[in-house]
Every structure is written in C-alpha cells, then in structure tokens.
Design goal:
Blueprint (H helix, E strand, L loop, with lengths): L2 E2 L1 H13 L6 E10 L2 E9 L7 E3 L7 E3 L1 H7 L3 E7 L3 E7 L15
Parallel strand pairs: 1-6, 2-5
Antiparallel strand pairs: 2-3, 4-5, 6-7
C-alpha cells in the first residue's frame, strides 16, 4: 500500500483547488523502470476507470491505480519535496530501494 505524507496531501489538495478540480482524484500510473526503480506519473482524474483500484487513504481526494501499479507502489511513500537540487513537487519513493552501482547505491 502506498503512503502519502500530510505535506503531499496538502500540496495535492491545493493543486486540485487551484485547477478547479476539487472532487477529482489522482491517477497514479507506472511510466517505466529505471536504475532507481519503478517510475510513476500522476494526473487528475474525475473518476476511476473500470479496472482501477480506488484508494481512499488520502485526506481530501481518492487515488486510482491499476493492479500492476499497486504492486510496484507497495511500500512507496508519496512525499512533497522542496529541495534546491531536486526541485519542488511530489516524489514517489520506495524506502526499501537500495539503488544500483551506476547511481552510487549498491544493487540489491
């Protein structure tokens, strides 16, 4: 199950309000695999698709994703970041990911 931090929830709720999307959810999708692990994308979505899982664990909005994305999201954390090197926005991070040698981490 994906976890979302309070700061990330606030950031998403603010985005929904600024974009006149209050009542919409957030679709999380798998956009590829990289050395740093699965890569995800997010977009506003009015309602879940037929085969999408509805995750009601966030405050103020639902999250939608398919079964394959669900498997890759476990145990990821959605965080709000404001870092001079990484920028400002949302990051989906797997706290158990060890990285790989080309990224300076050590493959697992």
């Amino acid at each position: 199950m994906v976890t979302i931090t309070p700061d990330a929830e606030k950031f998403i709720n603010d985005l929904l309000e600024k974009n006149n999307k209050v009542g919409h959810g957030i679709k999380i999708y798998l956009s590829g695999e990289a050395c740093s692990g699965p890569q995800f994308g997010m977009s506003f979505k009015e309602a879940p698709g037929e085969d999408e899982i509805v995750d009601k664990s966030a405050n103020g909005f639902d999250m939608y994703y398919d079964e394959e994305t669900k498997e890759k999201l476990d145990p990821c954390v959605i965080e709000f970041i404001d870092d001079p090197n990484l920028g400002t926005g949302l990051m989906i991070r797997d706290p158990n990911w060890k990285g790989c040698s080309s990224c300076g981490g050590g493959c697992h």
